[in-house]
Specification:
The complex is a heterotetramer of chains A (334), B (264), C (160) and D (455). The radius of gyration of chain A is 25 Å and the shape is elongated. In chain A, the strands form three sheets. Chain A has a four-stranded mixed β-sheet. Chain A has a four-stranded mixed β-sheet with strand order 4-3-2-8. A three-stranded antiparallel β-sheet of chain A has the order 5-6-7. With 334 residues, chain A is an alpha+beta fold. Chain A is built from six helices and eleven strands. Helix content of chain A is 29%, strand content 25%. Chain B is α+β, with helices and mostly antiparallel strands and 264 residues long. Chain B folds into three domains: 46 residues, no CATH class; 104 residues, Uridine Diphospho-n-acetylenolpyruvylglucosamine Reductase, domain 3; 105 residues, CO dehydrogenase flavoprotein, C-terminal domain (Enolase-like, domain 1, 2-Layer Sandwich). Chain B has eleven helices and twelve strands. Helix content of chain C is 35%, strand content 17%. Chain D folds into two domains: 185 residues, Alpha-Beta Complex (Aldehyde Oxidoreductase, domain 3); 174 residues, Aldehyde oxidase/xanthine dehydrogenase, molybdopterin binding domain (Aldehyde Oxidoreductase, domain 4), CATH 3.30.365.10. In chain D, the strands form four sheets. Chain D has a seven-stranded mixed β-sheet, sandwiched between helices. A five-stranded mixed β-sheet of chain D has the order 10-18-17-16-11, with helices on both faces. In chain D, strands 7-3-9 form a three-stranded antiparallel β-sheet. In chain D, helix 9 links the parallel strand 17 and strand 18. The chains are: A alpha+beta (334), B alpha+beta (264), C alpha+beta (160), D alpha+beta (455). At the A-D interface, strand 1, helix 1, strand 9, strand 10 and helix 4 of A face strand 1, strand 10, strand 11, helix 6 and strand 14 of D. Strand 11 of chain A pairs parallel with strand 1 of chain D. Chain A: One of its GO terms (molecular function) is oxidoreductase activity. Chain A: InterPro entries: AldOxase/xan_DH_MoCoBD2, AldOxase/xan_DH_Mopterin-bd_sf, N-heterocyclic_Hydroxylase. Chain A: This is Xanthine dehydrogenase family protein molybdopterin-binding subunit. Chain A: Pfam families: MoCoBD_2 (PF20256). Chain C: GO terms for molecular function: 2 iron, 2 sulfur cluster binding; metal ion binding; oxidoreductase activity.
């Protein structure tokens, strides 16, 4: 019996969005009478934290703390159109729409504040804590609470904005395939270290070191959630998962979580995550979509590590103990 | 028709009710309630028994009796059943172990039924109202069995003579690629004087590895001496193919895992 | 359809309902009593999202018939916070960013609670074992394991 | 997690208050207290349960359907077949003009995969619906089925889907989406080595802990509120509107809180039939996939086959890359024609290669239709590309990481689908990985930059 060790590397990029059908998302922002901000969308939170991120994006743009923003999303009677949550587009597309809407609302807010303070709107700035200050003369200020009250009850203004982000449809050119299917690209490089039991074909992923470049970590803890969970799913794809274990034979498809294999809490690789930020030109505060690409590089990195360990290539996913055993036997048979 | 549960205080009464068509016995629920949830409409009536003896554990000397409703969790935490704890803990996660019973495990199709593999290695006796049958006989006829199992009896093994291994892809709680239980008696010089080896997933229900058992007699537990036993470990097996592993793979790694268990 | 009475204590309050015989505890809790904190992720006993604590033991409410719970003491995640103050486990899940979609969270917290009720200072291995019947598809488990370890430390410090 | 701020520091906006801050998630308190409301947490009095009768065959003609016993079953309120669905033949990407309509809401005359929906039963309880479903009699004439993509593409293979007329999706570019860049044969001609390898995957399930489903409640004014865990609200509403031939104004979708999606909830499967049930019965309806349905009926990530032929120089440069990709769509298109062409744009990978030839096929077989999943069109391609990169490096005796530096794309490099590279950061990721993994590479690679070729 031998436990053999190997390591492998993989590097990838990943596109944001799906422009081959046109890629729009809209957002509306308005202030309540006391200066809280309602973001209305129809984007879907799958658990990745879309609501929280839209709140932070709106808050940053308006200039208020995040807890002054309320997200009302995914009610088609109220929320304007969103293409959907997929293709790593949520943060990027909806975020841009929210910024545009929030900017318009902010402009109205500053105009009302300017009237109250009897200065030009262009001379005003927000302090991020809920106040509007005169640039260079911060003692001259008004709270956003008071500005909203004024807008509603005194000045008859709607502190609101409309946001629209559309990547126009790209039609692939028939002969050359020239097309623009997406916008900015995220990047990753993963090094995986494995142990392979050469008598059973069992693979243990010891460590994965993932470097991800995601444009901008809008909320680092939430980015970490995505990347850690994605890295786990990548390993899972590499070694465990399929609904058709004997593909293309259609039999023996798993029907529950006992038969559909994924790494359990006792199978976790020691996971390191390093994040780089090269802001994208068109992303909200430079953000790209990290949600999908984070699960990709582990698959080839693990595959390459298995080869490094035992000298057989498994070019069919998932890399099961059975496939490794068959390859090792074929190798031994020469 | 809806699903209806009937509760009886005695096994005798429940056995009567169980004769009706579409009726099944409810133990811990991990098999029959699941089947009902999944749309198995062949079951319209469930029967359960509250008789306390079904949940009793009795250990006296080596003689052990587990009531059919004893759960895996109860076995795993019972101080006198420490030798069986690894087999009991091999079943499911914590919640399942609080529900899954000794009786139910006897009926669990591969890849389930790890605890029964241990019982088979111990040559347990399965007890019903109709009498007592060796576990191997019981397993062979379990599909047609109608009488409620009330308990199981066996001689508690000494810890050093009994070994159990469950091989799973997912840790700590995957279902079995295979499971192995061995009960070996050895002479002072270490040679095996008697061997019982039970296998899970190597057929549609737990089975004995008779050829390997015979080949182990007179061997010391060294890699060299057990090699002939490992070579015949797969004799008579007919492993399941399922999403976890193919029959080919199970046969391929059975000798490896048996060898590791014997040499551990 | 035959209705049967079920009566038990849920998070400290008495509940009594009539349900169809054969109704699972999960359905009784969610559809009859209105406690939707246990989730139906599989109805097979393979995901743990429906985990509840019955008489101090972790159980799968999807495989438990309601009428077998008469007289039982049932605890769910919705009853864990007291007077609006989060249980240390809930606090730890928040602080560790251990929830993403949140669907597995109530079951995970139940599984963790039973562990901490019996084991003051669990090892990582014990935490892993305690959570092993609960599937999470988002987090990769590590933040959940860390949350439980953190809550255990907080508990034992409070006790000290 | 560590943020390495030293990279690209010159282009990052600073002085932000909320962005870049690890604010607590506003939804988490609901999650940890069990208070978050998912679609299935809504319960309405009188709600009906919908269960689907599904095909037991991979490919079969339906001779007849007899629902009479099922309709008489106690508790059954309505039984739906194809004739009840106003626009029964649909395809979801018709919204972006990707046709033809090729899929039935309820099977009409034929089933093309094992598990296909044939009859919908609505009953007072789940149990009654299950019992009635078992009483639906469908007479099938079993047809030959094809499961292997190569077999499916051969002449004489059983025809999976008559709406296509052949077992592949017909793009405007022909039987495949094509990318042509440079002269790939000339590239192979100059290469020191050529390596052609084939890679394969099998279908993968999203396996969210919450299964796909919806709860529909009539509002009493000809409008229907659909509580759903779809990943795309209007996409689903608009498709439902087409299938049901109902004005969109009659539909009200509420969602946005989903127990995991990963791409598995972008098909429009449960909502239209549940709304139809609510419309025809006037009752609330829930249709929630069982776990078995989620595992075997809901669309998986497509199986793919990827054949890569590379020409490489001894100095490490890849001079030609030819990729043929096959996406196993299963019996119907759903999102697969899109995924296959998304793959066409991706296949050169994050590398600058002067001569590229890509063909990607979307192939029909008699299996569960596949659709989008996390990394759609890219994940399996990346597996193939990056294993191929490892093989190429070893073939020419180069360190696999250094080999990637040699070929890494940088700002301004033209990609094969004729988009100039912008915002590249592959090199920096690899530099950081080299450090973090203690995998040293030559200093010249550590000095490289994504900004320019010159650096």
């Amino acid at each position: 019996m031998a436990i053999r060790r190997g390591r492998g590397v993989a590097a990838i990029n990943y596109p944001t969005g799906m422009n081959l059908g046109g890629d729009p998302t809209q957002a509306l922002v308005h202030s309540t009478p006391t200066g809280n901000f309602m973001v209305t969308l129809s984007s879907v939170d799958l658990g990745q934290g879309m609501k929280q991120i839209m709140a932070q994006i709106c808050a940053e743009t308006i200039g208020v703390p995040t807890d002054r923003v309320i997200i009302d999303t995914a009610d088609t009677d109220t929320g304007p159109h969103c293409m959907g949550t997929f293709a790593s587009r949520g943060t990027h597309r909806a975020g841009n729409a929210v910024i545009q809407a929030a900017k318009e609302a902010r402009q109205v807010m500053l105009e009302v504040a300017a009237e109250e303070l009897e200065v030009n709107a262009s001379d005003l700035e927000t302090d991020g804590q809920g106040n509007i200050l005169v640039k260079g003369a911060p003692q001259k200020s008004i709270s956003i609470f008071d500005v909203a009250l004024s807008a509603h009850f005194k000045r008859g203004r709607s502190i609101s904005g409309r946001g629209m982000f559309l990547i126009p449809r790209s039609y692939p050119e028939k002969e050359t395939g020239a097309m623009k299917p997406s916008t900015c690209y995220a990047h990753a490089c993963t090094v995986a270290e494995v142990e392979v039991d050469d008598e059973t074909g069992e693979v243990t992923v010891l460590t994965v070191k993932n470097v991800f470049e995601i444009g901008r970590a809008l909320n680092p803890k939430m980015v970490e959630q995505q990347l850690v969970g994605g890295s786990w799913m990548g390993i899972s794809h590499a070694l465990y998962e399929t609904t058709e274990p004997y593909y293309p034979n259609r039999d023996y498809g798993g029907t529950d979580f006992n038969q559909y294999l994924m790494p359990g809490p006792g199978d976790l690789a020691k996971t390191e995550i390093i994040v780089l930020e090269r802001p994208s030109a068109d992303g909200p505060f430079g953000a790209k979509g990290p949600g999908e690409m984070c699960a990709n590089p582990q698959i080839p990195a693990v595959a390459n590590a298995v080869f490094d360990a035992v000298g057989v290539r498994i070019d069919t996913l998932p890399i099961t103990p059975e496939r490794i055993m068959r390859a090792l036997k074929a190798q031994a048979a020469g | 028709m809806t699903l209806a549960l009937q509760t009886f205080s005695t096994v005798k009464d429940a056995n009567m009710a169980l004769q009706a068509a579409g009726t099944r016995y409810l133990g811990g629920g991990t098999l029959v309630v699941r089947a009902a949830n999944e749309g198995d409409v062949s079951v319209s009536s469930l029967v359960r028994v509250t008789e306390p003896s079904l949940s009793a554990i009795a250990v006296s000397g080596g003689e052990t009796r587990l009531g059919a409703s004893v759960t895996m969790a109860a076995i795993a935490r019972h101080p006198e059943l420490a030798a069986l704890a690894p087999a009991a803990r091999a079943v499911g996660g914590p919640a399942i172990r609080n529900m899954a019973t000794v009786g139910g495990n006897l009926f669990a199709p591969a890849p389930y039924g790890d605890f029964t593999v241990a019982m088979l290695a111990l040559d347990a006796i399965v007890v019903t109202e109709d009498g007592q049958v060796p576990i191997q006989t019981f397993l062979a006829g379990r599909d047609a069995s109608r009488a409620i199992v009330t308990g199981i009896t066996f001689v508690l093994p000494r810890a050093e003579s009994f070994r159990f291994l469950k091989v799973a892809r997912v840790k700590p709680k995957g279902v079995s690629v295979l499971s192995i239980a061995t009960l070996l008696q050895r002479a002072a010089d270490g040679t095996v004087t008697s061997a019982r080896i039970a296998l899970g997933c190597m057929a549609d229900r737990p089975m004995r590895a008779r050829a390997a058992e015979r080949a182990l007699l007179g061997c010391r537990l060294t890699a060299e001496e057990i090699a002939p036993a490992l070579a015949v470990a797969g004799e008579g097996t007919s492993p399941i193919t399922d999403p976890i592993a193919s029959a080919w793979y199970r046969n391929e790694v059975l000798p490896v895992h048996l060898g590791r268990l014997l040499l551990a | 359809m035959a209705k049967v009475p079920v009566q038990f204590t849920l998070n400290g309050s008495e509940k009594a309902e009539f349900v169809d015989s054969g109704t699972t505890l999960l359905h009784a809790l969610r559809d009859k009593i209105g406690d939707t904190s246990p989730k139906g992720g599989c109805h097979q006993g393979t995901c743990g999202a429906c985990s509840v604590i019955i008489d101090g033991e972790l159980r799968l409410s999807c495989l438990t018939l309601a009428e077998t719970c008469n007289g039982a003491d049932i605890r769910t995640t919705s009853g864990l916070a007291e007077a609006g103050v989060l249980h240390p486990l809930q606090r730890a899940f928040l602080d560790a960013f251990a929830t993403q979609c949140g669907f597995c969270t109530p079951g995970m917290i139940m599984a963790a609670k039973v562990l901490l009720d019996h084991t003051a200072n669990p090892s990582r291995e014990e935490v892993v074992e305690a959570l092993s019947g609960n599937i999470c598809r988002c987090t990769g488990y590590e933040p959940i394991i860390q949350a439980v370890l953190t809550a255990a430390r907080a508990n034992s410090q409070n006790a000290a | 997690m560590e943020l390495r701020k030293s990279y690209f520091a010159d282009v990052r906006q600073n002085g932000l208050n909320e962005i870049g801050q690890p604010r607590p998630r506003l939804d988490s308190p609901g999650h940890v207290t069990g208070k978050t409301a998912y679609f299935a947490d809504r319960n309405f009095p009188g709600m009906l349960h919908l269960k689907m009768v599904r095909s037991p065959h991979h490919h079969a003609r339906i001779r007849s359907i007899d629902t009479s016993e099922a309709e008489k079953h106690p508790g059954v309120v309505k039984v739906l077949t194809a004739k009840d669905v106003p626009h029964n033949v649909y395809t979801i990407l018709i919204l972006i003009q990707i046709g033809p309509e090729d899929e039935t809401v309820l099977a009409d005359g034929k089933v093309r995969w094992k598990g296909e929906a044939v009859v919908a039963v609505l009953a007072e309880t789940e149990r009654a619906a299950q019992e009635a479903a078992a009483k639906v009699k469908v007479d099938y004439e079993v047809l030959p089925a094809v499961f292997d993509m190569e077999e499916a593409l051969k002449p004489g293979a059983p025809l999976v889907n008559e709406y296509h007329g052949q077992n592949y999706y017909l793009y405007d570019s022909g039987e495949c989406r094509k990318v042509r860049f440079g002269d790939v044969e000339a590239g192979f001609g100059q290469a020191d080595h050529i390596l052609e390898q084939s890679y394969q995957s099998s279908p993968i399930e999203h396996a969210p802990t919450e299964t796909t489903g919806c709860v529909v409640a009539p509002e009493g004014n000809d409008r229907f509120t659909c509580y759903t865990n779809t990943q795309a609200m209007f996409f689903t509403l608009d498709n439902a509107s087409i299938i049901l031939q109902m004005p969109g104004s009659k539909l009200h979708f509420v969602g946005g809180t989903v127990g995991g999606g990963f791409g598995g909830k972008v098909d429009v499967i449960v909502e239209p039939i549940a709304i139809l049930g609510a419309k025809l019965t006037g009752r609330p309806v829930c249709f929630i996939y069982s776990r078995e349905e989620e595992m075997q009926i809901s669309s998986p990530r497509a199986a793919e086959k990827v054949v890569i032929k590379d020409g490489v120089m001894m100095d490490g440069r890849i001079v030609a890359r030819k990729v043929t990709g096959y996406t196993d769509a299963g019996a119907y298109s759903r999102h697969s024609p899109y995924g296959a062409q998304k793959g066409a744009a991706h296949y050169p990978g994050p590398y600058t290669i002067p001569n590229v030839w890509i063909d990607t096929y979307c192939v029909y077989t008699n299996r569960t239709p596949s659709s989008a999943m996390r990394g759609f069109g890219v994940t399996i391609g990346d597996f193939a590309l990056e294993v191929q990169m490892d093989k190429l490096a070893r073939l020419i005796g180069m360190d696999p990481l250094e080999f990637r530096f040699v070929n890494a794309y940088r700002d301004g490099d033209m990609k094969a689908h004729r988009q100039p590279t912008e915002g590249a950061a592959l090199i920096e990721c690899m530099q950081e990985a080299s450090r973090a993994a203690n995998w040293p590479v030559a200093e010249k690679y550590m000095a490289m930059s994504s900004y320019t070729k010159g650096a």
